[in-house]
Amino acid sequence: MKTRITELFGIKHPVIQGGMHFVGLAEMAAAVSNAGGLGIITGLTQPTPEALAKEIAKCNGMTDKPFGVNLTFLPGFANPPYPEYIDAIIAGGVKIVETAGRSPEAYMPKMKEAGIKVIHKCTSVRHSLKAERIGCDAVSVDGFECGGHPGEDDIPNMILLPRAAEELKVPFVASGGMGTASQLVAALALGADGINMGTRFIATKEAPVHENVKKALIAASELDTRLIMRPLRNTERVLANAAVDKIVEIEKTKGAATTIDDIKELVGGVYPRVMQGGDMDAGAWSCGMVAGLIHDIPTCKELIEGMVAEAEQIIRKRLEGFLAA
Ligand SMILES: Cc1cc2nc3c(=O)[nH]c(=O)nc-3n(C[C@H](O)[C@H](O)[C@H](O)COP(=O)(O)O)c2cc1C
What we know:
CATH class of the domain at 4-208: Alpha Beta
Largest sheet: 8 strands, parallel
CATH topology of the domain at 4-208: TIM Barrel
Oligomer: single chain
Structural class: alpha/beta
Distance between the termini: 26 Å
Shape: globular
Bound molecules: flavin mononucleotide
Number of strands: 10
Number of helices: 14
């Protein structure tokens, strides 16, 4: 398939692996890029810019295809040394950055001067338009279904994607809930130039996470995610577990008075314990509703090539067939 996204990033298939804390390591990004998609290393999983430089070097040794780095601009209280992380990205020769969270505006000149293409992840049309205005090359439009932070507007992709298509001039990918060939075709029909997947890529052979995580995704249905941190206006979609039940209970009891301190133990420092240790009840970790559509653990190549081949069949046979009829 050839779309504005495959052209922009120099990739074979219009499939991106979104940044994922403690999942987006060199092994993950290289596997996706080698399969013809765009793999992305999660910048802030690396504790320092020096560690990120090493992870980029490792990925460079594992693939000769383009890959990107995710930079998540966290809400106010945390302030990692972003300029130094960007220096590591530039020095490592990485030409694609996926930004997320707060606006990347302050860092755009530095990235643009280095010839980096920026794709910003947005959960609304207004944020997508702002991304376009400040010079982002593309947008990842993240619907309410998504694993991670869906924002506070609660607009699912069936509405959000065609709304984005009405307004955006830069290409965008559909993010949130994506995991199958039919969804890829639907996303293209709704105006996107490709898809971004998070949760689906965790259930792949190469994903560098504990087997328990992959098994949990296969066991989960579309009913098994929960929204937490709504009272903090930092909503996150996570997989239900014992810790998440506690968070939901605390938030129900305290309502608008909930503070981060009330749930800190259950949301802080969780990722290494889940992703590396396989402790599935350690706390809250991001997971999308697409878990209900995950039934196997393929290689990234099998997943991406299988999706694209089936998408072509759907277009040529099923959709063409309606016209003939
Ligand atoms: C375990 C996990 C960790 C994530 N961590 C990040 C992150 O650190 N930064 C970020 O921008 N997005 C993060 N995301 C969001 C993904 O990049 C992607 O936007 C999202 O998963 C898309 O929805 P899907 O899971 O339905 O495919 C994470 C998602 C998951 C499932």
